[in-house]
Amino acid sequence: MQSHQEHLQPLIASAPKKRRLYAFFFFLVFSTLLWLFVKLAGTYTISIEISLHLVEPPIEYWIPTKQANQQIKATVTSNGFKLLRFLSTSFKENRIDVPVNQLSFRRQNQNSLYLTASELRGYLGSVLDINENDFELTEGDVYFTVEPLLNKKVGINVKHELKFQDQYALYGKVTTSPDSIMIYAPSSVFDTLQAISTLLIKQEAVNASFSKEIGLSFDPILIHPENEQVVTQFNIERFTESTVEIKIDKPSKPKMKLFPSTTRITYAVAMKDFKFINADQFYVMLDTNGISTRNKFLGLSLIQQPENIQVTRIEPDQIEYILLK
């Protein structure tokens, strides 16, 4: 019993020391946090650099790449809490897009524009979540050079991938509203730009006409279209297959006999147009280029056919012949 009490005495003696140690660490941590809180509550000013990417100039201008990418210096004045939160964002790694046409830019001369420090400060403040009154641009207004663009109207190519139900197909050409569009572009690409394409339209199991609003596909740095959306119209009809026998036309010289003298054209036609199609609307001509090389067979050329039909095959598409004296 006595030895047990002797064993407990050192443990009992050390208990107050542990409590004092715990209390010491608690007050150390507490005082550190209190000091940190007081420090963060204070006001500080820091210097930063921001990468800007100037985009969306007025439609008649282009901003060259070197002018579009700008590095500016600024100061931010705020309490430590806000600055700590601000510095934890990724603004240093990312360029900030600045839509020039959405801001109140000013003109220095014909080819030089600038954004005032106050205008840019307000925009960057909203993007970076900083009170614009706490934000100052060290170098003031931001100047940049623009190049005037040439303009012309071009056609619109509709890109599409349609999968139809059986017997259904596109009837006629795809139309757009508007049917052409004014574009602005630098001289380096202006002459080669004859049309502008839409984004890809994909539809499956198509069995009825439809319209769709779709965006245009273009490089926004080089090309500025007057409108960026068009309305496309797809006319869809049910088709059937039919065949017509056509006499093969041949030149008057040299004289020859054809075997056979007719050919059969198989075509797909919309049901609504079926009754209007007849043999007189087709014209097949003999291709005589092979005579000089004594080819055994001569090809056929389909010179004329009705609109809105799809010729699927011509049988035969080559024929034998005999030259007559």
Q: Tally the helices.
A: 5
Distance between the termini: 145 Å
| Global shape | elongated
Count of domains:
3
DSSP helix fraction: 10-25%
CATH architecture of the largest domain: Beta Complex
| Average of per-residue pLDDT values | 86
The description of the largest β-sheet is: 8 strands, mixed
Q: Provide the gyration radius in Å.
A: 40 Å
From the helix content, strand content and strand pairing, which structural class follows? alpha+beta
Q: How many beta-strand runs?
A: 26
CATH class of the largest domain: Mainly Beta
Assembly form of the protein: single chain
Strand content: over 45%
Report on the structure:
It is a single chain. This protein has three domains: 106 residues, RNA Polymerase Alpha Subunit, Chain A, domain 2; 85 residues, RNA Polymerase Alpha Subunit, Chain A, domain 2 (Beta Complex), CATH 2.170.120.40; 83 residues, Beta Complex (RNA Polymerase Alpha Subunit, Chain A, domain 2), CATH 2.170.120. 21% of the residues lie in helices and 46% in strands. Strands 12, 20, 21, 22, 23, 24, 25 and 26 form an eight-stranded mixed sheet that branches. The chain has a seven-stranded mixed sheet with strand order 13-19-17-15-10-14-18. Strands 4-1-3-7 form a four-stranded mixed sheet. By secondary structure, the protein is α+β, with helices and mostly antiparallel strands. Strand 5 and strand 6 form a beta hairpin.
